[in-house]
Write a structure and sequence with these properties.
Number of strands: 25
Largest sheet: 9 strands, mixed
Helix content: 25-40%
Shape: rod-shaped
Structural class: alpha+beta
Oligomer: single chain
Number of helices: 10
Distance between the termini: 86 Å
CATH class of one domain: Alpha Beta
CATH topology of one domain: Bactericidal permeability-increasing protein, domain 1
CATH architecture of one domain: Super Roll
Strand content: over 45%
């Protein structure tokens, strides 16, 4: 009971004092409690970006490489007919085409058949195969070869000594070892032409280091790669393509060189059916409260605000962040002397590039205090005036950043003989983050990128 009286008595006396001072015409002087500190969200949202690494070759280039690789002697050995052997020799250049996500091979050969002391003249033929290439999660590229038949007509029967044989069945009986030889050779050559892991590792490692984009602005491209994705092999219109995407976070940083990240090893390859080829660069606009105050203070300090025949003047003004809101601290003189707190929420309009504040209102502690003796102040114009004067147009700042990103990303040297080329199409809003001393606004430029090997 004693404790209750001890707590309650000062509140009664304070309320009585306020009432008496109001009745007697004495100007009230109030000091509101500072709003309770709240935790901040620590980081801005991040938009994933894709570094597109195209690797491609024409079917002519692939054919040229195969012709340099595949030997002349293709097969010499037994057939399904007992005592009969075949000698198959390449007889001209291999012709390669690409369509319907397959590689097609036409292999000119000559076939000689031997049975004891008897031998046929060399028979010219063209064997037709098709192959599909697939990449395994461990970065290996394999090809599966399928025999399609002959492109030539053969006599139904050929006599060789005492035998009468069907050459077509002989050819088809020895295609299995031929397919194995071709499959191994083609797989090796495609892996040589598309050194997938070596190339991607070079880009992956380079992407983990800040890249200086513009020395005059001291602008850096800061990439944080996360995963590597591969789209199935594309073979159409006599071109063979591999689409590799390195998913990463990309940020434009103006100022000192960002700290180098701890190196992350190349991850396992992730096979996907589609790849988002959009390249997004985050651009952060930091609005420090001290800079906002420089603009707002001349518009608010020492200005008279009238309400219900009473007048107050703002003598001091301060801003700081608290949780997901910012706090405005006011010191007033005039009909009401005191220190009061208002809160508001930041808002960015990507259509107008205007940073503004919304829902400006007195903090709960201040409201409770004012209700007792100066409720006229709660309903005055001070809230709307503060809300209006804190607005800022960021068009020039964001356009400057967008133009900087556009010029810088046009051609970036990621590493020796590795170029990143990109274009910027749009500028989009991403996030707003309240911090203790500033508000960070994040937008990102969106376009497409490609990594080229010189």
């Amino acid at each position: 009971m004693y404790l209750l009286k001890k707590t309650f008595l000062p509140l009664v006396l304070a309320s009585l004092a306020l009432t008496l001072s109001a009745c007697s015409g004495v100007k009230p002087s109030l000091t509101a409690e500072r709003p309770r500190d709240e935790a901040f969200r620590m980081v801005l949202k991040k938009e994933m970006s894709s570094l597109n690494v195209p690797i491609e070759a024409s079917s002519d280039e692939l054919g040229k490489a195969l012709n340099q690789t595949i030997r002349k002697e293709l097969y010499k050995g037994s057939t399904k007919t007992r005592g009969l052997t075949a000698d198959i020799v390449r007889n001209g250049p291999i012709v390669v085409s690409a369509a319907d996500n397959y590689l097609y091979f036409t292999l000119p050969i000559t076939m000689s058949l031997s049975y004891g002391m008897f031998e046929t003249p060399a028979i010219p033929l063209k064997l037709k195969f098709k192959a599909n290439a697939r990449i395994t999660p461990d970065w290996k590229l394999n090809t599966d070869i399928y025999y399609l038949g002959l492109s030539d007509l053969l006599a139904e029967d050929i006599g060789i000594g005492p035998l009468s044989i069907k050459p077509r069945s002989i050819v088809e009986g020895i295609t299995q070892p031929l397919q194995k030889v071709l499959s191994d050779l083609i797989s090796k050559k495609i892996n040589d032409m598309f050194p997938l892991k070596t190339r991607i590792a070079k880009v992956w490692n380079a992407a983990q280091k800040p890249v200086l984009l513009d020395r005059d602005y001291n602008a850096w491209l800061n990439l944080t790669p996360r995963e590597v994705m591969l789209y199935p092999l594309y073979a159409q219109n006599n071109r063979v393509k591999l689409s590799v995407g390195i998913n990463s976070f990309a940020e434009l940083v103006v100022g000192p060189e960002p700290a180098a990240q701890r190196p992350v090893p190349l991850p396992n390859l992730k096979l996907v059916n589609t790849i988002d080829k959009n390249f997004r660069i985050a651009i952060n606009a930091d609005l420090f409260y001290k800079d906002i105050l420089k603009i707002a203070s001349p518009l608010l300090l020492n200005k008279e605000f009238n309400s219900d025949g009473k007048t107050i003047v703002i003598k001091d003004l301060d801003l700081y962040g608290n949780g997901d809101k910012f706090v405005v601290k006011l010191e007033t003189k005039g009909s009401l002397d005191g220190v009061f707190y208002l809160t508001g929420k930041p808002r960015f309009d990507p259509q107008t590039n205007i940073f503004s504040v919304e829902d400006v209102d007195f903090d709960m502690q201040t409201q409770s205090l004012l209700l007792q003796s100066a409720d006229w102040f709660l309903h005055g114009t001070i809230k709307s005036m503060i809300q209006e004067k804190l607005n800022m147009d960021l068009t020039q700042r964001l356009e400057q950043s967008r133009e900087m990103a556009r010029k810088a990303i046009a051609q970036v040297q990621l590493a020796d003989h590795v170029l990143l080329k990109g274009n910027i199409k749009t500028l989009k809003f991403s996030d707003v983050l309240v911090q203790k001393d500033k508000i960070s606004i994040q937008v990102y430029t969106e376009g497409e990128s490609a990594v080229f090997f010189q």
